[in-house]
Write a structure and sequence with these properties.
Order of helices and strands: HHHHHHHH
Helix content: 55-70%
Number of helices: 8
Largest sheet: none
Number of domains: 2
Number of strands: 0
Oligomer: single chain
Strand content: under 5%
Distance between the termini: 26 Å
Radius of gyration: 20 Å
Structural class: mainly alpha
């Protein structure tokens, strides 16, 4: 991916801009519970409902938790960041992107630990190297991209390429 981005740079370097920036039950009229598919059954918690669906679809928990949930859950933020970037409002775009990550790291994650203790299901922050490396790499990439206070389309393509590499890696990891 990154080699493709670099090749694009070579062929389009003169155009660099400164801008920052169907299921069986539905077909037969049955309800989802009567399809016989365990991933469609109603279950008490979202986690227990997701496990059969993930097994049926062949998706890893890592991929869903680190790629799909953030993309779907933050779709409104992503669309507004793209909208502001198209209007050349880079400062707002960066505040949206970096502010959201900071909010999760400094408030939501620690609050989840304390709430899990109160709920009687303790949660900890024990991560493998494979889980920590993308966080460090992402932090480094964001710092380097925003260091010069300018961006172009190539840096955007490289960021998307780095995200795609991480997504593909987590797609194939089944457990650590």
């Amino acid at each position: 991916m990154l080699l493709t981005a670099t090749a694009l740079w070579g062929t389009h370097s003169g155009h660099v801009s400164r801008s920052w920036g169907r299921s069986r039950g539905a077909a037969s009229g049955q309800t989802p519970q009567s399809t016989g598919n365990p991933s469609c059954a109603r279950v008490g918690s979202p986690r227990r409902a997701l496990e059969p669906a993930l097994r049926d679809l062949g998706l890893s928990k890592f991929f869903v938790g680190l790629i799909l949930v953030p993309i779907i859950g933050n779709a409104a933020e992503h669309s507004s960041a793209v909208l502001f970037a198209m209007r050349d409002k880079v400062d707002v775009t960066l505040e949206i992107a970096i502010g959201s990550s900071t909010q999760i790291a400094l408030f939501v994650a620690p609050a989840s630990v304390f709430i899990s203790l109160l709920a009687g299901h303790p949660m900890d922050f024990v991560f493998s190297t494979f889980e920590v490396a993308p966080v460090g790499l992402s932090t480094l990439i964001v710092a380097l991209i925003s260091l010069d206070r300018r961006s172009n389309w190539l840096e955007g393509v490289q960021l998307i390429g780095a995200y795609a590499i991480m997504a593909i890696s987590f797609f194939f990891v089944r457990g650590i």
